[in-house]
């Protein structure tokens, strides 16, 4: 009986270590960026575009950031895009 408890405990420890290793590997994996500029959505749903430095880290930096907004042209009633 003691041997069974020992084997089950060892299996549980190995399984927990495998899960922790898998989660850490996914956390620190850098995202694949295929374009020069990326879009970043903030918690307040604001969207900014720019060049992302240090992607996948805890402190990513968005450089050359800009935002695009739409306005209705009062004369033509068409939408126009503004920086």
Report on the architecture of this protein.
It is a single chain. By secondary structure, the protein is of the alpha+beta class. It folds into 2 domains: 1-30; 32-83, no CATH class. 31% of the residues lie in helices and 30% in strands. Strands 1-2-3 form a 3-stranded antiparallel sheet, with no helix packed on it. Strands 4-5 form a two-stranded antiparallel sheet. β2 and β3 (61-66) form a beta hairpin. The N and C termini lie far apart (72 Å). The relative contact order is 0.11. The mean pLDDT is 83.
Q: What oligomeric state is this?
A: single chain
Overall mean pLDDT score? 83
Number of domains: 2
Q: How many DSSP E strands?
A: 5
The biggest beta sheet is recorded as: 3 strands, antiparallel
* Proportion of residues in extended strands: 25-35%
What best-fitting shape do the alpha-carbon axes yield? elongated
Task: Report how far apart the termini are.
Answer: 72 Å
Order of helices and strands: HEEEEE
Q: Which bin fits the share of residues in helices?
A: 25-40%
- Indicate the radius of gyration in whole angstroms: 24 Å
Largest sheet, spatial ordering of strands: 1-2-3
Structural class of the helices, strands and pairings?
Answer: alpha+beta
Q: In DSSP terms, counting alpha (H) and pi (I) runs of 4 or more, how many helices? A: 1
Uncertain regions: pLDDT < 50 for 5+ in a row? Answer: none
Topology (SSEs and partners):
Blueprint: H1 2-27, E1 38-41, E2 47-53, E3 61-66, E4 69-72, E5 79-82
Antiparallel strand pairs: 1-2, 2-3, 4-5
């Amino acid at each position: 009986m003691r041997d069974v408890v020992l084997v089950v405990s060892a299996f549980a420890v190995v399984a927990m270590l495998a899960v922790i290793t898998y989660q850490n590997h996914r956390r620190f994996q850098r995202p694949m960026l295929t374009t020069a500029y990326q879009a970043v959505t903030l918690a307040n749903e604001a969207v900014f575009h720019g060049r992302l430095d240090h992607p996948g880290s805890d402190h990513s930096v968005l450089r050359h950031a800009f935002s695009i907004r739409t306005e209705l042209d009062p004369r033509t009633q068409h939408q126009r895009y503004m920086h």
